[in-house]
Write a structure and sequence with these properties.
This protein is an alpha+beta fold and 248 residues long. The chain has 6 helices and 10 strands. The longest helix has 21 residues. It is 29% helix and 16% strand. It is globular, with a radius of gyration of 17 Å.
Length: 248
């Protein structure tokens, strides 16, 4: 039985498919942190970056509201789904989440990660990086990330760091924002929703979630809003290169 919310979500997704929308340049990543090319080919991760002609847009909530940012995450999710479908990959290997982060004059996109093992090993970048912070968490006895570091938030922070490795990270205000579009595990396309960052569920073993990670990086999660497509044809942006190469 579909609830009204699910019906509206499906209708929204279908409207995105049939109406001409901007190209966000989402691609399947090939060079991810592994020394084994065979493993890299099995890893399912998608990403992209766009840069706005007006550099004030991404962080200005009047020009790019939380609903607008979520809409971009939905579009990026749709591009990922199209690539996955064209490659005729098994349903279970498609990442279940796509994150969009408004940072400086850009919007970064990155999916959650599907891999042979959920123990994702992130590439070391520099002190204060995602990798270093996750290792420090282990050293300090905080435990491990709830999903082994495979969430879209971890992936996208790593992408931002790689794209800005020669610069000091900027701290707000205005703070970078993240929107996450998620398909619940085991459910079909059309059941996606706006999800908050994951949190650690209390238990015997200590750990942390993306809610804790984004706080370290000064990133704010958007509220529980619906996507808004009304401004998509007003934005002027271009595709921006990132350190990741597309999968051949």
């Amino acid at each position: 039985m579909y609830t009204l919310g699910k019906i509206l979500t499906i209708a929204y997704v279908l409207s995105v498919v049939v109406v001409a929308v901007p190209n966000l340049g989402i691609k399947k990543d090939f060079l991810l942190p592994s020394e084994d090319d065979h493993v890299n080919r099995q890893i399912q991760s998608y990403s992209g970056v766009i840069k706005f002609d007006d550099p004030s847009i991404p962080l200005d909530k009047e020009k790019m509201s939380d609903r607008d940012l979520l809409h971009l995450a939905v579009l990026a999710y749709g591009e990922m789904h199209a690539i996955w479908g064209a490659r005729q990959l098994p349903f279970w290997v498609m990442p279940g989440a796509m994150a969009a982060v408004a940072y400086q004059d850009k919007i970064f996109f990155a999916s959650s990660i599907k891999a042979p093992s959920q123990a994702i090993k992130l590439k070391d970048v520099h002190d204060g990086s995602v990798s270093a912070n996750m290792e420090d968490a282990l050293t300090m006895g905080l435990g491990t990330h709830r999903y082994g570091g495979a969430c879209a938030e971890i992936n996208i922070i790593q992408l931002i760091e790689e794209s800005n490795k020669d610069k000091e990270p900027e701290r707000g205000p205005p703070a970078p924002r993240v929107a996450i579009w998620v398909r619940p595990s085991g459910l079909p396309v059309g059941t996606e929703f706006n999800a908050p960052p994951c949190t650690w569920e209390s238990g015997a073993n200590p750990g942390y979630g993306c809610h804790d990670v984004i706080k370290v990086y000064g990133i704010e999660a958007i509220g529980r809003v619906a996507p808004d497509a009304s401004k998509e044809n007003e934005w002027r942006f271009r595709l921006h290169p990132s350190w990741r190469l597309p999968c051949p």
